[in-house]
Design brief:
The chain has about 425 residues and is mainly α. Helix content is about 70%, strand content about 0%. The chain is built from 16 helices and two strands.
Length: about 425
């Protein structure tokens, strides 16, 4: 078995299916279900999760951004993103043989599933990665700027990083960096981009001086529950097979999420004197983030360890680290996804079990993947922001921000 096939959820795509002429119906059925589960994470999971945490005057705008990003990224993925991310090319970016999904016939295969199913599965990852970023700059960016950001970032940032890690000829894949389902590609990538966005755009008006009470945490808890359930498609679907490894990935995902939820809750209880509902689900999401790169490589005992470290680490990332950075990361995109992704990537290098994934981890390779993603995602995100700022401007005016984006950007409001 090649190194790519050991850790890459999509390793057999390089020849468009030359090695496998008939799709496996069982694997195909599971990946179709997993794709729907990952889409459920964004629509409606992330929309509700983010929408409940912002102020009443920005709920519709925040949820609209999530849904609009899903639409925009679908089009960019079709036009160029899939080809650049997943097709054979150079060590840094894929080729152009699938522009506008040209050549994607009924007979084209990727591993044991139709390439159309594979492309759709990968699209669901591109959508949620891009949709995570606005959590950092919530309540203050123009809708037009958000749409442009989604289009440019999904092509210029997400697609190359996905190729580095998940394409068999990607340079991090060749180096031996492990990322089973997106700890680096999805969470570190989105978390760092969110941090850069929050710093560049600046804090919300009144941040640190005025209360910014969430509109409805019941929505947030509902969204978190949908994220948790959808994550089984994220992790257990990433081997493109309905087999024992998928079952183990599902099990360790549940264990890490539950452990992290308890760890965050316990830490908050000790520090603040009482647990919060938001803290409980934030901890669960942190555990899900951290186990994502490791899910196809680790034992249940390792999942418990990852969850415990992630629960405490993400709590500190969303509180202590955010204060140190003096950054209005509104919905903790970096504090949870960036920090959790880094924790998970590092622990994957230490805990990967050959008995589960057939390969040992390499902590130095994991560190290389983290550093490369931080530098590239951070730098390219800054360039994208500067370009959009010159084109249409990034931030709404002070009066618009005070009125709320629901009315000012969309002419609508919650009754």
């Amino acid at each position: 078995m090649s190194l790519g096939a050991l850790f890459l959820p999509f390793a057999a795509l390089a020849d468009g299916g030359a090695a496998a002429r008939v799709a496996d119906s069982g694997h195909t059925a599971w990946v179709l279900v997993a794709t729907a589960l990952v889409l459920l994470m964004t629509l409606p999971g992330l929309a509700l999760f983010y929408g409940g945490m912002v102020r009443r005057k920005n709920v519709l705008a925040t949820m609209t951004q999530t849904i609009a990003i899903a639409a925009v990224v679908t089009l960019t993925w079709c036009a160029v993103g899939y080809s650049l991310a997943m097709r054979p090319g150079t060590a840094f970016v894929g080729g152009l043989d699938r522009l506008f999904l040209d050549g994607l016939s009924l007979d084209a295969l990727s591993g044991g599933v139709p390439e159309s199913v594979f492309a759709m599965f990968q699209l669901s990852f591109a959508i949620i990665t891009t949709a995570l970023v606005p959590g950092a700059f919530a309540e203050r960016m123009k809708f037009a700027a958000v749409l442009l950001f989604a289009a440019l970032w999904s092509v210029l940032v997400y697609a190359p990083v996905a190729h580095w890690v998940w394409a068999p000829d990607g340079w991090l894949a060749v180096l031996g960096a492990l990322d089973y389902a997106g700890g680096t590609v999805v969470h570190i990538n989105a978390g760092v981009a969110g941090l850069v966005c929050a710093l560049y755009v600046g804090p919300r008006s009144g941040y640190g001086r005025q209360p910014m009470t969430p509109y409805n945490l019941a929505l947030t808890l509902t969204g978190a529950a949908l994220l948790w359930v959808g994550w089984f498609g994220f992790n257990a679907g990433s081997g493109l097979a309905a087999d024992g490894r998928a079952g183990m990935a599902m099990l360790v995902t549940q264990l890490a999420a539950a452990t992290a939820a308890v760890a965050w809750m316990g830490t908050e209880w000790l520090v603040r004197g009482r647990p919060s509902a938001l803290g409980l689900v934030s901890g669960a999401v942190g555990g899900l983030v951290a186990v994502t790169p490791a899910s196809g490589f680790i034992t249940p005992a390792s999942a418990l360890l990852i969850g415990a470290v992630a629960g405490v680490g993400c709590y500190l990332g969303a509180t202590v680290l955010k204060r140190l950075l003096r950054c209005d990361d509104a919905l903790d995109a970096f504090g949870i996804h960036g920090v959790g992704g880094i924790i998970g990537a590092l622990l994957t290098g230490w805990l990967a079990s050959p008995a589960i994934g057939g390969v040992r981890g390499d902590t130095l390779a994991q560190l290389a993947g983290i550093c490369a993603t931080v530098v590239y995602s951070g730098g390219m995100t800054l360039i994208v922001l500067m370009a959009i700022d010159r084109l249409v401007g990034l931030r709404v005016g002070e009066r618009t921000e005070s009125e709320g984006l629901d009315l000012s950007e969309h002419g609508e409001a919650i009754a």
